[in-house]
Structure formats: C-alpha cells, structure tokens
Amino acid sequence: MNLNKVFIIGRITNDIVLKATSTNQAVTSFNVATNRVWTDKSGQKQEEAEFHSVVVWGRQAELASQFLSKGSLVLIEGRLKTRSWKDTNNQNHKVTEIICERMQFGPKSQNSGSNSFRQQSASYGKSSVKEVETQDEEIPQISMDESLEDEIKPEDLPF
Question: CB 3.0 to 4.6 Å from 75: which of 58, 104, 125, 126, for a disulfide?
Fold first, then answer.
C-alpha cells in the first residue's frame, strides 16, 4: 500500500494572488513557512525554518485569496507532486509542491479584529478556559456545501 499525504501548519510568507487557467479554473499558489526548535548536544537552543510551496485549486483557491494574507496561520492537508520543465535557455527545472486537498484557517490576528473567543491554556496537565474580548467584527462562516438539495436521503439508497 502506498500513501502520499502531507500535513503542515505554518505561516504564509507571501501575498496570495488568485489566477485562472484557460478553462477558467481558479488556482493560487503561495509559500508556507514551518519551523523546528530543538536543543543540540551542547544544550544550545537551535531553530530551523522550512519553506513549502502550496498549490490550491477551485473554490478553496477563491477562499484562500479572500481570507488569507501574508503572515496568516494555516493548516494544509494535501499530497506531494513534483513537476519539471525546461526554460527558454533549455535549462531543466524541478519543483516539489504540496497540492492542497483541504485547508483550515488559523485564528484571526488581534490587529484585524474578531468576536470574543475562548483561549485555552494548559499548565502542568490542568487546562483552563478564559474569555478574551477583542473588537466586534463578524467572523465569516464558510460552508463548502453549495446546495442542500443534493443531500442523500435514506429512501434514495438502492439497498
């Protein structure tokens, strides 16, 4: 059995530009930075950043360009795809990208405003929840369901 699945959580490093293919399919690409922190053998804290190219298609591309911007936190679930091409100088190029299958937006920054939200903190195995007040701006509700008329009903099943 083979599996090509990627999960990353990171911050977007560039502004998102929505484009359309010749068949009018929405597409966007952006980079996501992730980091890793560890302590080396000498006890020094080390940090390393990795940058990932992400490609998003269709309705998700439209939503990404509408609600995400440089610095936004995002979770991307997808698959790896390597493509290659030759440039005008006949040089070979190769890039490995994450083709987004699902995405989840992170919390809005305090600067952009949002309704009050619950902030959960944990200390020594105990968790506490406190209410945090922020500016009153409506958080958009996003539904991928285009129509509820297409809902499958039990009486429609052939078995």
Answer: 104
117-123/126-132 β-pairing: antiparallel
Q: What is the pLDDT of residues 97-108, one digit of tens each?
A: 999 999 999 887
Residue 56 CA: distances (Å) to CA of 12, 16, 17, 78: 13, 11, 11, 10
pLDDT one-digit tens code per residue, 8-54: 999 999 999 999 999 999 999 999 999 999 999 999 999 999 999 99
- Domain assignment present for 154: no
State whether 11 and 56 are in the same domain: yes
Rounded CA Rg of the chain: 21
- The answer to whether the beta carbons of residues 103 and 77 sit under 8 Å apart is yes
In one-letter notation, the amino acid at residue 125 is G
Please give the full DSSP string across 82-102, using - where no structure is assigned.
EEEEE-TT--EEEEEEEEEEE
Max CA separation in the chain (angstroms): 67
Residue 121 is part of which domain span? Answer: 113-138
- CA 159 distance to own-chain centroid: 39
- 62, part of any domain: yes
